[in-house]
From TrEMBL:
Its EC number is 2.7.1.40. Its cofactor is K(+). One of its GO terms (molecular function) is pyruvate kinase activity. It catalyses: pyruvate + ATP = phosphoenolpyruvate + ADP + H(+). This is Pyruvate kinase. It comes from Candidatus Merdiplasma excrementigallinarum.
Amino acid sequence: MDLPSSRMRVGDMKEIKYQIGDKVRIEDRISSYDNKCIPLPHLSQFIPSLNKGERITFRDGQVVFEIKNINSGYILCECIQAETTIKKMSSSLFPDSRIVYDSLEDEDIFYLKKMCKLGLIPEWIAVSFVEQDYQMEEVRNICSEVWGNNNIKLMAKIESKNGIKNLDDIMKWVEGIMVARGDLMSSITPYELPDLQNIIVKKCNAEGLVSCVATGIFTQFANSKFCSKAEIADLYLIIKEQADYIMLSQETGNSKYPFECVEMINRAKDYFESRFNSYYD
């Protein structure tokens, strides 16, 4: 089970491909059909934490705007990167701002209690944008309140600089860590990512925690059936680091060849593991 946290997602709007230099208004509203307005519900509660010159990114950093002016209920921005479209439910992130998202919302607690009434107990609960250990403590306490004594395992998704900074404390409250590379890479420089991924997986292996590497693994293959050298090398590195799990997102959730993508990754994984095993025979 994946809890999305209180991070904001785009409201109801037409799918739009913005261009560099475009000026837009990002507004606290549930919908907009004005091409120059991006609806972002609940924005108002985060506006006091924003500053001019900071960035807001969408869709794992593929679309980036710079904040030019801040007003009550909306911000004025300029597009500085546009690799894809923005559409309803696109993820957003403020990588330069000091925002801490709530791990649990009232809606999450409602559904957890509803699951309990139906006799359902999740094996794992993954929590998005974990930056402080108290966030996982809160989730742990809610699980105990809802289910009593339980064996539910918690996985913290590390997606920001603060999550990296407080990793050791966070690890004390969980059974697993996810390297959520999409949003994480919006918060760091690209060349930091492989090193941080390696550090997190090694820490998990040393502490007996489950490690999961997520997103952006076979995106090109999933849309073209052509496997790039970078993609296969990335997968090789993940397997060599001994990560326990790989999680796909766009590759299987919104692509042309989701089944072929999974099949190719499994074949490559089996081959890599057989080669690694032969090194030690």
